[in-house]
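Hey team,

Filing this mostly as a record. A colleague (T.K.) asked me to run one chain through the structure pipeline before their review meeting, and I want the input and output archived in the tracker in case anyone asks later how it was produced. No errors, nothing strange. Just documentation.

Input sequence:
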Amino acid sequence: MGGGLVAMASIHSKDYKRFTVFVSHATEDKDVVRAWHEGFVNGIEKAAVQKGIKADGLLSRMEIFISSSPNAIAVGNDWFETLMQKLDETHALLPFITSNSVSKRWVWFEVGYFWNRMRKDKTLKIYPYIEKGLELPSPLNIIQGANIGGRESFASPMGQQFVTWALQNLK
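Output structure:
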């Protein structure tokens, strides 16, 4: 399987009962993605409490998928078909642009595929996370990104915007 894989959370219909976040990353960055995942769950929980929403009900509507995790794609399954299905279900793409991922074809395939969907559906969003010291490559550089900060990412303005956007779309 290629170097740029996936992490997710899923909405399967326009009624937003399920919500999908696809985190495109290089396999070498799986520890960074795990830290992001912890921050994501904590950020959603805190934001939900602040807005008077039951966090457990909110999180139960999210399927978190991280392809670099063991058993994320069952042995014997068509991994490409699984990734394409997940990309088709995704409502937010979070590409992790690092020195490991910047040259990975799979990361850019996933970004391009989702970007095309986003052009047709304005409810979809891309929230790029960038390794400190790297510049966001074109054309992704037209979208405001945030530095990768693990759990602290959700204290950033972009992290808070993402959590707010996710809460709005989970109604």
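Quick notes for T.K.: The chain is about 40% helix and 15% strand. Helices lie at 30-50, 55-60, 79-89, 105-120, 157-169.
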